[in-house]
């Protein structure tokens, strides 16, 4: 499975002074705002008795009267949901309000609106995302008799940007400094409030930039801050004001201010974006309610016994800018989209918690067994496996429904698996090869089965590989060679590939399959970028416990429970929580959302945040769990760079397309990387006294079968600039001037720092080399993975296990015809041979021989891997171990990768988050690569 900072300060300051005049009859910020125009009640509460002071002022006299009344502390508002999507109505019930002829209530919606109602029910539509505090007051004959202001609830509203605006606007974020404001979003009058404004992602549209920030502090005071041209971050300004805000100090991040009067304030941040060519502007807003208390007007958020905020909603902040590539289970092949697929699709089987060898039935009613084969009745009632392990029969679980209400049948499973095979040769690479390798004779991974519209042989092989029977509600897989359940089930448990789609729905939206050789051949084209069915890609029908409620491209996704998920699967409970996942622009935003209480889970934080997380853990507000991974992180070289596309990224970039086809250049670069500084100081094992992972060498990582320790391999590179320079001079490319980017996924500050370190060493090794780190969204990195059209000279990436077997890594990382990286990186025997012929024609026998030898080595490695895979598949472990080790050695000698480290995975969660059955192990399966199984998270 493929995976693909900080606030900046301006050197100049712009000072803005704003004088604010507030007319008292317009102030609507207090807990009893409706009374400010005529009389101002000050409530001093002792138990259930309130002293009610009324002040009356004329031009010449004033008087004060004091009376004692009974003021009730009302129950919190009941709501239809604690989490919603912008533009979606929310129903509220004023729990303690009984309507009568002389009674009314004021409902404070948290967005600046106060609704006067004589009904117990209020309906509110929040048009913008944010965090809204909600409460109500009840009045009898014009007098306040009760308030829920000490039992406020918080509503979280996720973005819902129209598709027509998704690439033109950015979603703002408002966060607090929880260290300085530990009670946020509750404050006291006069208390300094520290607010930080930012954004999830910059606008992705052509010529679009962030233009300015506009703050509204909820009482008519506003502040406009220009954006820095090159960053999108705000310039520094200073604002002074009067009225309810006593001061706003020099501010970018954070803004500091305080409020003189108690009340509920609706703070908003609007980010204005601009098309620099046309001058047209766009805007989008986020809200954050804050409640300002005084001794006479206390505010508090309703706190159940477990003190769990936003019950019923799991909020995740993920430091993965750009979001996923797709939600199509037969197309998406990245670790970001994998998380959504894991929750919205059923597969025949799933992994049993953290185990990589034990499985549970999901869409299957039972796990098939060999023992059921001999009994015909049991074979089709419970599923069975033939004694020679070539036929697997799965009984489909009754009572399953898609999120649109369609029943899930054997036909749907069959249809989805056929679709998986047809998508197996898609570009960029798709996951279909994982199952197809078991079903189609001598199949080469990442290639298409149907080779022409008249390919009847390929058509027959597919149709014979999978069959279904609606009468027995079974699906049968016919393997072309034996495979034990441990092998096959790993393929069937992967939602990337075998996620089940609604066949009827696919046909309704133009993604139906024509079951003929020509139809299969044509359908294969839908797996190529540019030909995707966009409705399957971004708005699919769910077959799993969750479904997609809304999606804002590159910003966020909201998952809500599939209303039809059954209640009788004990180990996959029907979920009650709504899940909001934010893909944020940088780790600081992700951390602040978590630390300030706006997120329950934070993922993919760089290592330098661990001390802060440990501090939160020591305070009892966070929990940190570590567990092993089956993952490899690395930098990879492109041997056939698309110079025209690279030039489109920056016209100044220049590098020969074949620069990294030279094995000595790659070797020199590998020896110019400081591995010990990387793991100890940049990743931070020594710096932070934390195990973030370990150095490794080779494709097969620790924990996989046939792993070879680095001590048993030779030529694993170490940092040696003298040797690196010697290699570069020997390569024949020493005197070539190059300027190119080292691509790093946006938000990955660790590897960006590593790329900076590496670039400096490379320039020292050869002054002709000028490399610069460049952030790029993971989805863009994945989209560039097209053979012959890849502009990335060097890029950082990672491979997470699709299944816990060695060939998942060796095939993906090394194989010429079936690897995820070799094809888009130009690692091709014919390509190396053609380079050899070209340099021979130029009279350069050294380079001609170098590329010829490289071609032979690469071909030998491929053959060794194929033999190793064959022996591993048939259970000949001795032969498999021998051939994998030999292939690993050649892979290292070719220096196709700069192996960085095998990470340790971790969960950073709030202390009230727990695993299913109170076991965090359910969330620690290394195959999931740090992605949540949300139906196994318990909040509370």
Automatic annotation (TrEMBL):
Transmembrane found in the keyword field: yes
- The protein's superkingdom reads Archaea
Q: Give TM regions.
A: 14-37
User: What is any one GO biological process for this UniProt entry?
Assistant: peptide transport
Query: A Gene Ontology MF term for this entry?
Result: peptide transmembrane transporter activity
The alphabetical list of record keywords is: Membrane, Transmembrane, Transmembrane helix
Q: Which segments of the protein form a coiled coil according to its record? A: none
Start and end residues of each Solute-binding protein family domain:
385-817
InterPro entries found in the cross-reference section? SBP_5 (IPR039424), SBP_5_dom (IPR000914)
Question: PANTHER family, from UniProt?
Answer: PERIPLASMIC BINDING COMPONENT OF ABC TRANSPORTER
The name on file for this protein is Extracellular solute-binding protein, family 5
Query: To which species is this protein native?
Result: Caldisphaera lagunensis (strain DSM 15908 / JCM 11604 / ANMR 0165 / IC-154)
């Amino acid at each position: 499975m493929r995976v693909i900072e900080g606030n900046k300060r301006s050197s100049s300051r712009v000072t803005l002074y704003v004088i604010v005049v507030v007319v008292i009859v317009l102030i609507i910020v207090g807990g009893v705002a409706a009374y400010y125009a005529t009389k101002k009640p000050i409530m001093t509460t002792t138990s259930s008795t309130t002293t009610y002071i009324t002040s009356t002022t004329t031009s010449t006299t004033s008087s004060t009267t004091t009376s004692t009344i009974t003021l009730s502390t009302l129950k919190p508002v009941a709501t239809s949901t604690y989490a919603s999507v912008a533009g979606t109505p929310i129903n509220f019930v004023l729990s303690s309000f009984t309507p009568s002829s002389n009674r009314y209530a004021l409902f404070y919606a948290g967005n600046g609106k106060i609704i006067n109602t004589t009904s117990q029910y209020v309906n509110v539509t929040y048009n913008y995302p944010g965090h809204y505090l909600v409460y109500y007051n009840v009045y009898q004959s014009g007098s306040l008799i009760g308030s829920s202001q000490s039992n406020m609830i918080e509503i979280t509203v996720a973005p819902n940007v129209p598709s027509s605006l998704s690439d033109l606007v950015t979603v703002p974020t408002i966060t607090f400094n929880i260290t300085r404001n530990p009670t946020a979003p509750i404050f006291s009058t006069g208390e300094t409030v520290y607010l930080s404004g930012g954004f999830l992602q910059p606008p992705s549209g052509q010529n679009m930039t962030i233009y300015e920030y506009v703050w509204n502090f909820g009482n008519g005071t506003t502040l406009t801050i220009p954006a820095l041209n090159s960053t999108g971050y705000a310039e520094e300004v200073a604002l002074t004001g009067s009225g309810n805000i006593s001061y706003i100090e020099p501010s970018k991040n954070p803004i500091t201010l305080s409020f003189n009067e108690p009340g509920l304030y609706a703070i908003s941040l609007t980010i204005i974006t601009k098309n620099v060519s046309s001058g047209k502007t766009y805007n989008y807003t986020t809200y954050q309610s804050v409640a300002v208390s005084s001794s006479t007007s206390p505010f508090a958020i309703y706190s159940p016994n477990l003190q769990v905020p936003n019950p019923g909603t799991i909020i995740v902040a993920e430091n993965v800018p750009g979001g996923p590539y797709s939600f199509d289970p037969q197309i998406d092949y990245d670790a970001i989209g994998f998380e959504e697929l894991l929750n919205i699709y059923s597969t025949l089987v799933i992994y049993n918690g953290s185990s990589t060898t034990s499985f549970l039935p999901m869409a299957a009613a039972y796990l098939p067994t060999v023992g059921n084969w001999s009994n015909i009745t049991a074979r089709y009632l419970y599923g069975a496996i033939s004694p020679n392990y070539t036929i697997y029969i799965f009984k489909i679980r009754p009572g399953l429904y898609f999120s649109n209400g369609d029943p899930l049948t054997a036909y749907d499973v069959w249809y989805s698996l056929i679709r998986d095979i047809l998508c197996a040769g898609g570009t960029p690479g798709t996951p279909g090869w994982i199952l197809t390798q078991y079903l189609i004779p001598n199949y080469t991974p990442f290639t298409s089965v149907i080779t022409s519209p008249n390919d009847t042989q390929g058509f027959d092989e597919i149709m014979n590989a999978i069959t279904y029977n609606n009468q027995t509600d079974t699906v049968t897989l016919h393997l072309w060679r034996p495979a034990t359940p441990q092998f096959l089930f790993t393929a069937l448990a992967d939602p990337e590939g075998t996620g089940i789609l609604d066949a009827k729905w696919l046909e309704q939206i133009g993604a139906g399959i024509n079951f003929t050789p020509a139809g299969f051949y044509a359908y294969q084209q839908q797996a190529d970028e540019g030909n995707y069915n966009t409705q399957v890609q971004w708005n699919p029908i769910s077959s799993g416990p969750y479904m997609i409620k809304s999606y804002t491209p590159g910003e966020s996704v909201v998952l809500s429970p599939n209303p039809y998920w059954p209640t009788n699967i004990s180990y996959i409970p029907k979920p009650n929580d709504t899940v909001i996942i934010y893909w944020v622009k940088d780790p600081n935003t992700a951390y602040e959302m978590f630390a300030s209480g706006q997120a329950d889970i934070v993922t993919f934080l760089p290592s330098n945040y661990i001390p802060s997380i440990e501090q939160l853990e020591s305070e009892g507000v966070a929990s940190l769990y570590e567990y092993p991974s089956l993952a490899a992180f690395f930098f990879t070289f492109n041997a056939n760079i698309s110079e025209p596309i690279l030039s489109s990224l920056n016209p100044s970039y220049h590098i020969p397309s074949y620069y990294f086809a030279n094995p000595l250049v790659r070797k020199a670069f590998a020896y110019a990387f400081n591995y010990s500084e990387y793991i100890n100081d940049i990743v931070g094992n020594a710096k932070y006294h934390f195990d973030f992972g370990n150095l490794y060498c080779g494709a097969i990582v620790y924990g996989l079968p046939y792993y070879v320790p680095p001590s048993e391999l030779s030529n694993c590179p170490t940092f040696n600039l003298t040797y690196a320079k010697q290699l570069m001079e020997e390569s024949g490319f020493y005197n070539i001037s190059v300027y190119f980017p080292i691509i790093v996924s946006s938000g990955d500050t660790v590897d960006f720092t590593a790329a900076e370190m590496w670039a400096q060493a490379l320039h020292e090794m050869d002054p002709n080399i000028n490399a610069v780190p460049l952030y790029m969204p993971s989805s863009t990195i994945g989209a560039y993975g097209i053979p012959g059209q890849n502009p990335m000279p060097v890029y950082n990436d990672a491979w997470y296990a699709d299944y816990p077997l060695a060939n998942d890594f060796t095939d993906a990382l090394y194989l010429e015809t079936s690897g995820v990286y070799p094809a888009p990186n130009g690692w091709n025997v014919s390509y190396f041979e053609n380079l050899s012929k070209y340099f021979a024609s130029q009279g350069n026998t050294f380079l001609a021989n170098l590329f010829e030898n490289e071609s032979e080595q690469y071909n030998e490695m491929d053959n060794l891997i194929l033999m190793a895979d064959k022996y591993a598949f048939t259970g000949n472990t001795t032969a498999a171990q021998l051939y994998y080790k030999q292939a690993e050695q050649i892979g290292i000698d070719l220096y196709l990768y700069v192996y960085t480290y095998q990470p340790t995975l971790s969960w950073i969660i709030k202390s009230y988050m727990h695993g299913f059955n109170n076991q965090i192990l359910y969330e620690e399966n290394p195959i999931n690569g740090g992605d949540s199984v949300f139906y196994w998270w318990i909040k509370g």
